[in-house]
Every structure is written in C-alpha cells, then in structure tokens.
Amino acid sequence: MKIAVTGGAGYIGSHTVKLLTEEGHNILVIDNLYNGHREAVPDNATFIKCDIRDIENLKEIFNEFKPEAVIHFAAFIEVGESTKNPLSFYINNVSGTLSLLSTMEETGIDKIIFSSTAAVYGNPKTVPIPETEPVKPINPYGQTKACVEKALKDISQFSNLKYVSLRYFNAAGADPSGLIGESHNPETHLIPLVLKTAKGEREQISIFGTDYPTPDGTCIRDYIHINDLAKAHLLALEYLMSGGESNVFNCGYGKGYSVREIIDMAKKVTEKDFKVVEEKRREGDPAILVADSKKLKSILNWKAEFDDLEFIIKTAWNWELNRRF
Ligand code: UFG
Predict the structure, then answer these.
(1) Among the atoms of ligand 1, which is closest to the Cα of residue 281?
(2) CATH class label, 190-221+254-322
(3) Mutate to test the pocket of ligand 1, among 79, 145, 262, 263 (most ligand atoms within 8 A of CB)
C-alpha cells in the first residue's frame, strides 16, 4: 500500500515507518523536522520536508504520490509545555490537522489514522480506562487531541472519510535493533530522563509529586513498548483498508507503574545508582492512566509482544548508550 506518514521522523512515527516498510508498504514521510530526525527515516521510505499547514505544498505532494491513506503523527506532545504555551498547541495540533484533512478531501484521500492520547480522559473514574469513559482532558495538550477527535467524528459522519483514532498511553523503549529510539529536545519524558541520569549526563532525577492518591504517592502510567504501539498502526491500517468503520482504540497494556517503580527498574537495568529528588506536582498531570485495551485486542486482533517493563527499559538503555541522533 502507498501510505503517507506525517511526523514519520519522530519517535512513534519512525518506529511505525520501519515496521510498515518491513511489511513491504510504500511509505512517504512528511515531516517539518521541528522535532523529528531525518536519520530516523529508513532508506527505503521517501522523505519530504514539509509542514502540514503548508496546504499548497501538501496538495502537490499528495497529487503526485497518491497515498491510499494517511497516518498522522505530526503534533506537539508535551503535557507540561502545553500548559505554558497552549496557543502553539492549538495552532499545530488542531489547525495543522484541519489543514491536513482539507487537503486530503481535496485530493480524494479518505482514510486516516490519528495519533490520539490517554490525556483525553483527564482524571478518569474507571481504571483501567475503557474507550467509553467520558472525554474530559485536564490539560491543553489533551484538549487539542479531543478537539481533533470531535472533528473527525463529525466529518466522517457526513463524508466518505474513515478514521481510526489510537489513544496512546505512554510510548516507551526503542527498537531492539538499536537503529532508532526516543530523541526529544528538550527531553521531558520520564524514562529517557532517568536513563540520562544513570548515564551521568544529568545530576539527578526529579519525582514530580509524591502526594497523589496512588500506593506510593507518585503518578502511575501504562508504558507500552514502541514496537507494540507501531503494530497497532499496521493493524488499524489493514482494518480501514478492508472496509472497517471509523473507530477509537486505546493502546496500552492494562498495567501501570509508578514513577518510583520506573526509577527502581532503571537502577536495576543500568546497574547504576543516582540521586532522586522529590518535587512538587507538574501541572496538568493526571494521577493514574492505565488502558483497558480489550477493544484493540478483540477488533484489531492486536497482541502485546513486549509487555515487560525490564525489556522496555533495556531497549531504551541500549539506545541511550548508542544513540545515532
Ligand atoms: N515525571 C517525573 N519526573 C520527570 C519526568 C516525568 O516525575 O522528570 C513523571 C510525570 O510527572 C508523569 C510521569 O513521570 O507522572 C510520566 O511523565 P512523561 O512526561 O514521561 O509522560 P506523560 O504521562 O506526561 O505523557 C506521555 C506523553 C503524552 C501522552 C501521555 C499519555 O508525552 O503525549 O503520555 O499517558 F498523552
């Protein structure tokens, strides 16, 4: 299949592109390289540097490549940053996606897989969280993703558009090949920061909040290995291409780890001890986000292959020690 992937040079995008090319698909990566890395795109995928808001350029690209579907990763992703600069999140995540959707409509592309997030649930009442849980984000990042989900629902109801929205829990780890991995600048995610501390690049790791209503007082997240998450995109694509209806799926393992548990596992994997300091809560953080992923398993036939925190952190550590970008 011919697939256009926006944000395909980013962390989740590049792991998905690697899998899709290995499966024999013809991939065009569209990325403005604001956060992505050109080196993360495999040689057998085509790369074009373009911003999704550049409608004229995007139209030309789509008319030439003629993708059968779009996988749309390109977005700002940091919860903390979204509370400091919400407007830029609306411009990039909402306005950018609307530009993409209008270009898709103009060029006759009617299938999209959208990168959504567990952050749309805010502080959910039911844990593990089913997709039926009300969408009530508590930070601007989650709001922008919820906005796009609403738009997709409305547009698909009254046009040919079919979409799958994948609500990611916490993507983690790296491809075991060591060729690609997580690389944000600045890095704000827990696992890479803990590993940089183990490596000696940082003096200490901060725990943001120790007074959450969780067993050890720190936030709990559902860390899903990046290749299991990439696989969900492949299955979602196959689902849409075989006539599946628009749908929303959680992507996670249904198991959560606290910030302290992540730090302890990182100490075990790296065999390093390092300084841990307790700080106040980071704005916008929900206490617990753990997925109910029954729907992903039953409808898309997804199976977790790397559901093992030690393995996840080992692959991230391997990447951290031998990063290419
Ligand atoms: N944390 C720390 N110290 C740090 C960094 C993070 O204690 O130095 C804590 C955070 O407060 C949070 C947890 O570790 O409780 C995980 O934080 P991350 O920044 O790694 O990830 P988030 O849960 O904030 O967000 C990630 C993605 C979002 C996605 C969300 C879904 O960045 O895009 O997972 O759960 F929406």
Answers:
(1) 11
(2) alpha beta
(3) 79
